[in-house]
Write a structure and sequence with these properties.
The chain has 323 residues and is α/β, with parallel strands linked by helices. Helix content is 46%, strand content 13%. The chain has 13 helices and ten strands. The strands form two sheets. It has an eight-stranded parallel beta sheet with strand order 1-2-3-4-7-8-9-10. The protein is globular, with a radius of gyration of 19 Å.
Length: 323
């Protein structure tokens, strides 16, 4: 029996923290002009209660701290959460993409099951720029090679630690341009050409990329555009069309352009749950926009919420057991 509820690919979590650590996290947000009113917290029980109300059967969790020790500890806690709730949560293990050797080790560690960790990570989470290193950096070639050999799902999140722009925090609009810049650089540097078996999922309807994809196809291979890898117009259209996107906080105006770039079948529901920029009200408004925009573009409702099961067959099997 297949899962009847949706899969949410874009859920965040926090490892256990003291009150002092939560306050420090709030102060760090404020330093980036992200004026969250309360210290950030996270509760599996509260998230599961919301998922029930939103008809979400399973949520993929991710968290990408800026230090290697914290990242490893966070992945370990995520594996514990999935072990406790295997039918409701999956893990996109964070990769420290400023350190290719550490990435390779973390891929192996988080996908090796044991008595303590009976459920492996379902995929991987990366950020566009991690400690100053872009996903287009050539030093990541061994990482992409390994992930390509596995046919891995790689969720690409914008840089959560980016500084404010023009007096506003990056989650307002900069995340959209950050995603587009990084994906375009990966395109021109041949990452998508060399690693076609990685399922890259771009957060937030692909940011500004879908709107710009036609301009890229039209102008991106003209003689005045540097193009060391000789990317062709056909490759631009094919490789952008092979990407996946999630719907987090962008469905009203971002989902239709994304569908036209990648196709409706490669648009996956994402709530952006578990971070201060999302509330139940904003997530629910966006979820309704997913349904409305999908119907407007395809004449059907509900497919986007179910598309993620295609990416995560092991998670689908776990969710089936919950009925």
């Amino acid at each position: 029996m297949a899962p009847t509820g949706w899969l949410d690919i874009h859920g965040h979590f926090l490892p256990p923290q003291t009150a002092e650590e939560a306050l420090a996290r709030q102060n760090a947000y404020h330093a980036l002009l992200f004026m969250v009113p309360d210290p950030p917290t996270w509760s599996a029980e509260l998230v599961l209660s919301y998922l029930d109300r939103a008809n979400v059967s399973l949520q993929m969790l991710s968290n990408i701290p800026p230090s290697l020790d914290a990242l490893r500890a966070s992945n370990t806690h995520g594996l514990h959460l999935v072990a406790q709730h295997p039918c409701r949560f999956g893990l996109l293990a964070a990769l420290p993409t400023d350190n290719p050797s550490a990435c390779l080790a973390e891929i192996d560690r988080t996908t090796t099951t044991s008595v303590e960790f009976p459920v492996a990570a379902d995929g991987f989470a990366v950020t566009t720029v991690y400690n100053g290193v872009s996903l287009s950096d050539e030093r990541l070639e061994p990482v992409w090679t390994k992930l390509n050999s596995r046919g891995a799902v790689v969720h690409m999140h914008p840089n959560a630690y980016a500084p404010p722009t023009q007096g506003r925090p990056s989650p307002v609009i900069e995340v959209a341009f950050d995603t587009a810049r990084t994906a375009v650089d990966m395109l021109y540097k041949g990452v998508f050409r060399r690693y076609p078996d990685i399922r890259f999922v771009l957060a937030h309807s692909g940011g500004a990329l879908p709107v710009l994809s036609g301009r890229l196809a039209l102008l991106g291979t003209e003689a005045w555009v540097p193009n060391a890898e000789g990317i062709t117009r056909e490759e631009i259209e094919t490789q952008l069309g092979a990407l996946w996107v999630d719907t987090a906080a962008t469905a009203k105006t971002g989902l239709v352009p994304a569908m036209r770039m990648v196709g409706a079948g490669k648009c996956v529901y994402g709530a952006d749950c578990g971070v201060p920029c999302s509330t139940e009200l904003t997530m629910e408004e966006n979820r309704l926009h997913v349904l409305e925009m999908e119907e407007k573009e395809t004449g059907k409702r509900g497919g986007v919420g179910m598309n993620g099961w295609t990416l995560f067959p092991a998670a689908a099997r776990r969710a089936e057991k919950s009925g």
